[in-house]
Amino acid sequence: MSKRVLIVDDALFMRAMLRDIFEPAGWQIIAEANNGEQAIAAYKTHQPDLVTMDIVMPELGGIDALKKILADSPAARIVVCSALEQKGLILEAINAGARDFIVKPFKSAQVLEVAERVVVE
Amino acid sequence: MDMDNFREMFLTEAAEHLQLMVDLLVQLDSDPQDQDGIDALFRGAHSIKGMAASMEYPETARLAHHLEDHLADCRQLGQISGVEIDWLLEAVDLLELLLGDIRNGRPERNVDSFIAGISKQPEAAVDCVAETKTVELTACGRGQLIQLQLQESVAIPGPRFLVLLKKLADLGTILESTPSTEDLLQGDAPNQLLVRLESDIPQQQIYQQLQQYSELQVITFPDEPVEEKSPLKRSPDKSVRVSTELLDHLINLTGELITNRYQLQNALKEDNWQELDDGVGQLARLVKNLHHQVLQVRMVSLESLAGRLSRTVHDLSRSHDKEIQLKLEGAEIELDRAIVEELTDPLIHMVRNAVDHGIEQSGVISIKAWRERDQVLVQVADDGRGIDPEKIRQRALEKGLLNPAQAQTIRNYDLLQLICHPGFSTAEEVSETSGRGVGMDVVKTAVERVGGVLLIDSAPGEGTRITLKMPLSLAIIRVLMVECAGSRMAIPITRVVQTVEISPEEVQSSGKQLMVHYQNELLPMLSLRKMLKAPKGAHLDPIPLVITEVLGRKVGLVVDQLVGQREVFVQRLPSPFDQIRGCSGGTILGDGQIVFLLDLQTLFDRQRV
After folding, report:
1. pTM of the predicted model, to two decimals?
2. Which of B68, B384, B398, B514 could form an SS bridge with B359, CB 3.0 to 4.6 Å?
3. Residue B155 is part of a domain; what is its CATH number?
4. Could you tell me which of A80, A19, A30, A10 has the C-alpha nearest to residue A52?
5. Per CB distance under 8 Å, which residues of B are interface residues toward A?
């Protein structure tokens, strides 16, 4: 059975990029969300194997969403996505329980390596 | 009563006993009925017990006591079995860890679980040895050091290390780490992570887990679990034992120096120039003598390493199920203790490599040391399958270390040295292609740090020889003095292949890089001025060149002037000058001029970044 991923990003372009990376590699995009609130709801509904979570989003940001998801489902596998210069936010996210991180611009091999690694953990 | 002093004495002596016990155990492995050996082991445990009890280190005393009881039984039996030897070696390891605790002022670790295993151990059937062994290793709480380095291309090391730390925390308990989680969260961006992990997962599996991170360039498990060697802690003041004979010599010399002072003072008062001249001559003789004697204090023989090496070979032949013999030659050769300490890990690493990749089923590893003028050579050789230069050529091409033209012309010997290139030796598949394992670059760096050089010689089916050339002492070394941008600088002579002067017409250019022909090779020319960020100098004719080797490749270093060779007394630079990269020390000339000692390796590294 293919692994199921929930993509959370407020930018359609970024979601499309990730979709382009995941789908050819045999992943199923179970849902997409464009803010933190949607992400929490989608996680509850779909219980995906993996969440890619953008950090900076309107309404509810990625780190708060991550904390809320982990509070309900401590086993959730969440990988944060961020730009290089947001090092502080990445550290904060990892400290809050993100399993790993990927940096923009996304490179297919790197994204998939992180994703596969996190899912088998 | 100064307890610190006693503690230091206790630690030094106990460590000596433990070292001796390891030697004895390895010997007993081949001669299990050696009564003298068993007796000596018993006495070692007994001495440690007595000392630890009087120093009030209860856990150490308790473990030593159990060891003593156990060895008393062996004495009665008149022999000691292989199973027992392995167990005793582990007990000695645990004692070393306890000494580490004491040395670092920590509470001693608890030995209950280890002792609880003791009654079972000697009766244990041989076929369950392996299992019992792992259980006990974890039971004695032995933390494993793990050293991680990222690929240079990893843009934000801080978060990456944080993920790795968390990953390791899932695999066991992190006893300590440099940097710590807090450091990382505060934005530390180190180039390496050092972790002491306590885990019951076998090292191999931890390695496999870490290998999934392609961001990692280096994954090593440094051998030495004893805190003394660990860079995690500030190393405590080291003490040496000096023979009373040597001390007497020093005192006599001091006496003569005092007499000499009066002689000089007198001569000065009386304006007696002849007397003054004699006195200064006398002073020169005394200082030379003193210098010689003091150097002696710093010298230790390689013998001190023999125990650990035999131990490594013993353990590895068990775990790899290979029959390996270790031959040591020239262990009586003496070297500066700082060099011997730096050499320990590299030597063990090379022995490991020889077992892992060189020797197939059975074979001999020989370690030979000898002196050549003011250098000491140490050679680690195995009679294993050797290294195939063709495979290295291919690999070097793939990795872009050589261009196709270079790959055609490079000599096999030079090809072999490429194994030490950091871009070459880290990937795990190298061990299959080249027959050498990871981390030869680390070995080479360690050797170069003490001013030595490393050379590899091998051929398919003819084994591998790795030779280290080292200065006798770190304090006094021969240097080549050069002049650059108005300053005098020194280069350790061990780093100099040759000095030449070339005419500007001999310089060729290849793209932006200037090149020069040297013994049928085309070497890149690098300017020392440029490396030191000094302004461009005047046009030179002839151009003085220092041929040196960096990462196994020769280069021509352009200096303003070659001054000549001399012996210098190297002093460490005080803080904050010790932070200057590319400079490993300094020396003061007779006229008071300070000369910096260049660390070419680091300078070149900086250049490349």
Report:
1. 0.46
2. B384
3. 3.30.70.1110
4. A80
5. 155-156, 158-159, 162-163, 166, 170, 181, 184-185, 187, 212-214
